[in-house]
Write a structure and sequence with these properties.
The complex is a heterodimer of chains A (403) and B (295). Chain A is of the alpha/beta class and 403 residues long. Chain A has 13 helices and 15 strands. Chain A folds into two domains: 217 residues, 3-Layer(aba) Sandwich (Rossmann fold); 153 residues, Response regulator (Rossmann fold, 3-Layer(aba) Sandwich), CATH 3.40.50.2300. Helices cover 43% and strands 19% of the residues of chain A. In chain A, the strands form four sheets. In chain A, strands 2-3-1-4-5-6 form a six-stranded mixed β-sheet, sandwiched between helices. In chain A, β12 and β13 form a beta hairpin. Chain B is mainly α. In chain B, 71% of the residues lie in helices and 3% in strands. In chain B, α1 packs antiparallel against α10, α2 crosses α8 and α3 packs antiparallel against α8. The N and C termini of chain B lie far apart (50 Å). Classes of the chains: A alpha/beta (403), B mainly alpha (295).
């Protein structure tokens, strides 16, 4: 019956399109904005190539939806919540932007989602890590798509504890994201019978880690965990290998590593490091086929963020098509009602708190002998099922969740 | 184990040594700035970019032509020095004698351009550069594991710093330089080619930055933005030492490395701010800097 109803609705909708009555899509235009760090520390994990991924999705969709044209605008947020806020305010108040996508630095995403809620527009966060984005900072106007700190800790930290790493020393980037990750790691380590024997909060960014690595060595902990990102993580890993941290029996656990970080480190330095990822380009024929196309466009293999931007843009456009509307709540509801099945994930579901939950993967960086080319970097050790990976709704602090 | 303020002595000794190593980088970089400011009165905001360029050139020369570390140690500063001479000849010369702010803005613009263009080509994730085989591994000093490469950095940086100081303060060439910047016309009258001297001085100053860049390539992420982080810190070091004081820049560089290292041990979150704190205090009590001459 519902099926029949849906069919009918869409038949009516298409009939309306045919006669040119598209009242539900404002200005006959679906306007999508891409906001990300286009030039700074986080450029390579999302940046200009994320915009390319979004344009690929729009082109694959046919360049228009129900006869309305799709327009794209983009801007560089320079990792500043202030810059991001004023840009998004202009977009939604003066330029009729319907959707803001990309969104990398956690502070940026939190600031932008407030503005979107005020103006009732939609946001899809692909790049940010903080799990608070769909917890205490949840709104009815945004969706968090690719990953967050909760599964990062769940995947990597629990694997390392189970392998015998009982005592932990955590090097934390001293800002919101690092603190969130440190908290999630502490919870997982203690739940699995491990112990945090020291934490050190370092300034963001830190170019030289030798002093901190030395302190981590002196702590005598089994595991030295890196609760930081980007250049901080790669610098710390390089310095740890220079100072012989792993040779002296300690394990290094990097909690957030992107494909571009691992490529920059190289398999020589990064081999054996375990990490949690939401997606990897070389998992199956479908991911490989899409990644080949992406590489033709950009010259690089996609990170999980790039794939997530493509997938979420598709999911958005399909919802606009199905509902014949670009109204934020109508589209968000439709996106939640439709499970996601594409090259990014199977049976991904957007919950009422805005969290898209999907299977995550525990991966290990290949050895130089195993790696066949410069992008052949991970082997997938384990699939972490969606329900195990993400924070259960029963623990949610989001007011949108009915308990 | 004996403890100092709750920190084992062994750990503290390690941190002091690390501080001296980082201080050697600060010394090299602030030395170049001090030479350029002291002799040419140019506030060189492109200094961080030149450091970055030195490291990038090292990596690119290796990737493209297989140029090894030892050759790069000479080639990269030479190439960047030539870039510096060209910048001086075609751009900085045109605003000589104007207010400091002009050279500051011009060099800042040059830095942003170089950073932007290279970011577009190479991204920001960092380029990989392998440690030369000779320096792989390290020595256990008892209180810490000292990688051979870090020991080399201290040694060579001190040699280059002392050499520069000696050349400018104690040789005839240095005397010409100092005189040429004091009274260019008079020196011209003695038959000295002052404009050439000025170009070469700027080239030499930025070559020092590039040299620090080569030293950094095997141990730090080589990215187009690496210079922008370190530039402001190095400026603070120069201000603490006394703008234009060559010897002051060297000593202050090493001193600030140690101060930062100790902060990283006792209160890590403040380690990126401590040098600026010292700067504020020094400016309050000695506005000309620790080694500067009171105007």
């Amino acid at each position: 019956m519902t099926m029949m109803k849906k069919l009918l609705t869409s038949a009516v909708a298409s009939a309306m399109m045919a006669t040119g009555a598209q009242a539900a899509i404002s200005n006959d235009t679906v306007k999508i904005a891409y906001l990300a760090d286009m030039s700074g520390t986080y450029r390579d994990l999302a940046g200009p190539n994320g915009l390319k991924a979004m344009e690929m999705a729009i082109a694959d969709f046919g360049g228009e939806v129900n006869g309305a044209k799709i327009e794209v605008v983009s801007a560089d947020d320079r990792n500043s919540a202030d810059v991001a806020s004023s840009t998004v305010r202009r977009w939604v108040e003066n330029e009729d932007v319907d959707l803001v996508a990309g969104l990398v630095a956690s502070s940026v995403s939190i600031a932008v989602s407030d503005i979107l809620e005020e103006n009732d527009r939609l946001g899809i966060v692909s790049g940010s890590a903080a799990s608070s984005i769909t917890n205490e900072h949840c709104t009815p106007n945004h969706i968090h798509y690719v990953y967050d700190t909760y599964p990062l800790a769940n995947g990597t930290a629990s694997a390392v504890v189970k392998e015998g790493g009982k005592t932990w020393y955590v090097l934390t980037a001293d800002y919101a994201f690092g603190h969130a990750l440190e908290g999630d790691v502490t919870r997982v380590v203690e739940a699995n019978g491990g112990e945090i024997i020291g934490t050190l909060r370092h300034p963001f960014p830190t170019p030289d880690f030798s002093s901190f690595i030395l302190q981590a060595q002196a702590s005598g902990a089994d595991v030295v965990a890196l609760a930081n990102a980007g250049a901080d993580t790669t610098n710390a890993i390089n310095t740890a290998s220079e100072f012989g941290l792993t040779q002296s029996g300690q394990t290094l656990a990097a909690l957030l590593l992107f494909l571009n970080d691992v490529k920059a480190l190289g398999v020589e330095a990064a081999q054996g490091i375990q990490l949690t990822t939401g997606w990897y380009w070389d998992m199956n024929d479908e991911t490989r086929a899409w990644s080949d196309r992406f590489m033709e466009e950009t010259g690089a293999r996609p990170t999980m963020i790039h794939a997530g931007v493509y997938s979420s843009t598709m999911q958005y456009l399909k919802a606009v098509e199905a509902t014949g509307s670009d109204d934020a709540q109508t589209v968000r509801k439709q996106m939640m009602d439709t499970p996601i099945n594409d090259m990014f994930t199977k049976n991904g579901v957007i919950r009422e708190d805005g969290r898209m939950v999907h299977d995550m993967y525990l991966a290990e960086v290949k050895t130089p002998a195993e790696s066949k080319n410069e992008w052949d970097l991970y082997k997938i050790l384990r699939t972490i099922p969606a329900e195990e990976a993400y924070r259960p709704l029963s623990e949610s602090k989001c007011p949108l969740v009915n308990k | 184990m004996s403890m100092i303020f709750g920190v084992p002595l062994a750990v503290l000794s390690g941190q002091l040594l690390i501080g001296v190593i980082n201080g050697a980088f600060y010394a090299l970089l602030s030395l170049g700035l001090a030479v350029i400011f002291g002799l040419l009165k140019i506030i060189n905001f492109a200094h961080g970019a030149m450091y970055m360029l030195g490291a990038m050139v090292t990596v690119i020369m290796f990737d493209v032509m297989g140029v090894n570390y030892w050759v790069a140690l000479f080639m990269a500063p030479l190439l960047v020095g030539v870039v510096g001479v060209l910048i001086e000849y075609f751009l900085l010369r045109r605003i000589a004698g104007q207010d400091h702010i002009y050279s500051l803005l011009l060099t800042f613009g040059i830095a942003l351009l170089m950073q932007g263009v290279l970011t577009n080509i190479y991204g920001v994730s960092g380029l990989r550069y392998s440690m030369p085989d000779l320096f792989k591994g390290g020595i256990n000093l008892g209180f810490m594991f000292l990688p051979y490469y870090r020991a080399w950095v201290i040694g060579i940086a001190l040699v280059v710093c002392f050499g520069t100081w000696f050349m400018i303060e104690k040789t005839k060439l240095g005397a010409y330089l100092r005189a040429g910047t004091e009274d260019a016309q008079l020196m011209q009258g003695f038959g000295i080619n002052v404009p050439l001297l000025v170009s070469l001085t700027y080239g030499f100053g930025v070559a020092l930055a590039a040299f620090a860049g080569v030293l950094a390539a095997p141990i730090y992420s080589v990215t187009p933005v690496m210079g922008s982080h370190i530039l402001i810190t190095v400026f603070a070091v120069v201000v603490i030492g006394g703008m234009g004081s060559i010897g002051g820049a060297i000593i202050t560089g090493i001193l600030m490395g140690v101060v930062e290292g100790l902060t990283k041990t006792f209160y890590p979150p403040a380690s990126s701010a401590v040098i600026f704190l010292v700067m504020v205090v020094v400016l309050m009590f000695r506005p000309a800097g620790l080694f500067g001459k009171e105007a």
